[in-house]
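Backbone geometry tokens:
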Amino acid sequence: MAYGATRMDLVEEVHFARHGTGGPQCEADRRAAVRRPAHEWRDGRWLTRRGGSGGELCWFPDPVGGRDAYLADTAEPLMALARTGNLLRCSARMVLSRRDRIEHHLPKVLPVPPEGGVGAVRVEMRGAVGAERVTLVLGALDRPGVAAGAMASEVVMAILGGEAPAGVLGAGSVADPVSLLRRLRGRGVRVAELCGPAGGPEDPEKRSHH
């Protein structure tokens, strides 16, 4: 989101979606998030929705592709609103398979692998560049545990190097977002622009997706 905000003059909507988990505890957190009531920011107030409702087809970087994602109780909307106070709408979703939707209110029976497979995140932003209404969709792809480790490493390096500003802020705000994305790509995290207005040479790599 921090990078996307540099591409737009006005950000009015931000919608997050996640696919995949990094291991047993991550899977337990995902299941808990879709069990709890989800909070969606809409037109200046919080709406409480049933967790696991509000299904929406979301496109992630290949090979994940299109997946059905559902509202979940995660921190992204609150953090986005704290960063961009003029948001009109903000939501967060998690991908659930048909089996997940049937089982997510039941105790987990099958063991969870110690490390998850390929995961992805997606951020859809709507707003304006000048007088033009635009939509920007960004995505990242890697194993969640690997991507989280790479991000944590970059955050620590930014803090130790004096790059991070003082105060309480999200991980995406500790360094220049363009430089941060470039360094994450150097660590193997795939970053892609799925849809967006024309940009400059500092954009994440652009790939063709559905």
The chain has one domain: 2-195. The chain has six helices and nine strands.
